[in-house]
């Protein structure tokens, strides 16, 4: 395989994973969790915890996908196409039925989830001084909440699929870039940004994007 082929494979994996992750994560529950925490705590600590969690999650997903690459290419192609098709149709359905105040609904849901979590944490917080000196509790909270919220969601499954069929480094860096951009937007001013950029539009565009990837995987596969 030539250097130009490797470069093209890297770029394709990077762009595809970046777009898939961004349209899946923008305006979701995790997005608003980061936004709310950034209003109450240090933005830097929230960013550190969220990005660390997403790095671990993406790294695990890409490794699982890479391990799955031992499966015959034709099986990966069919499974990838079907899953992308399902994700695309589901996102279009969600976007079509989505209300205009979806951002407000997601924000309130994330806020309620955080309030319940923080209430439980306060009831357990009896001897955390030693831990707090080593690492900010905000970082730990962001890491845990993000990891649990992202586990098994659409973007993680899509990253596993891409890791099985695309350049692994491109997929890893692309998914990290997509998550990093969403998290940075959330920390800077998630609620305001989500109100300015229609979540419904992003969801519909994301659905079309998944359908395109489903078709391109099935029809344009080199093999």
What's this, in brief?
The protein is mostly helical and 223 residues long. 85% of the residues lie in helices and 0% in strands.
Describe this structure in words.
- Residues 93-120 form a coiled coil.
- Keywords: Coiled coil, Membrane, Transmembrane, Transmembrane helix.
- The relative contact order is 0.26.
- It is built from ten helices and no strands.
- With 223 residues, the protein is an all-alpha fold.
Helix and strand topology:
Layout: H1 3-25, H2 29-40, H3 43-67, H4 73-97, H5 102-124, H6 129-134, H7 137-150, H8 154-165, H9 168-196, H10 199-219
Features:
about 220 residues; mainly alpha; about 0% strand; coiled coil; manganese ion transmembrane transporter activity; calcium ion transmembrane transporter activity
Low-confidence stretches: 127-134
Total helices: the number is: 10
Q: Which structural class fits the helix and strand makeup?
A: mainly alpha
Q: Roughly what percent helix?
A: over 70%
Instruction: Give the overall form.
Output: globular
Largest sheet: none
Termini Cα gap: 15 Å
Mean pLDDT: 77
How do the helices and strands follow one another from N- to C-terminus? HHHHHHHHHH
Number-wise, the strands total 0
Strand residue content: under 5%
Alpha-carbon Rg, integer: 19 Å
Protein name: GDT1 family protein
Organism: Biomphalaria glabrata
GO molecular function, one term: calcium ion transmembrane transporter activity
InterPro entries: GDT1-like (IPR001727)
């Amino acid at each position: 395989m030539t250097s130009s082929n490797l470069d093209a494979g890297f770029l394709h994996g990077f762009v595809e994973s970046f777009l898939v992750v961004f349209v899946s994560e923008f305006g979701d529950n995790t997005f608003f969790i980061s936004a709310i925490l950034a209003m109450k705590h240090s933005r830097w600590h929230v960013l550190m915890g969220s990005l660390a969690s997403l790095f671990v999650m993406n790294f695990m997903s890409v490794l699982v996908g890479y391990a799955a690459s031992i499966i015959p290419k034709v099986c990966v192609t069919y499974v990838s196409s079907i899953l992308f098709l399902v994700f695309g149709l589901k996102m279009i359905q969600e976007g079509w039925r989505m209300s205009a105040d979806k951002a407000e609904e997601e924000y309130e849901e994330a806020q309620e989830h955080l309030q319940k979590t923080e209430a439980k944490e306060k009831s357990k917080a009896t001897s955390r001084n030693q831990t707090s000196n080593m690492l900010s509790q905000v970082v730990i909270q962001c890491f845990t909440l993000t990891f649990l919220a992202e586990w098994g969601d659409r973007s993680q499954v899509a990253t596993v699929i891409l890791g099985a069929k695309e350049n692994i480094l491109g997929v890893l860096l692309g998914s990290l870039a997509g998550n990093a951009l969403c998290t940075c937007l959330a920390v800077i001013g998630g609620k305001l940004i989500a109100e300015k950029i229609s979540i419904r539009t992003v969801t519909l565009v994301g659905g079309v994007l998944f359908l395109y990837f489903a078709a391109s995987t099935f029809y344009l596969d080199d093999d």
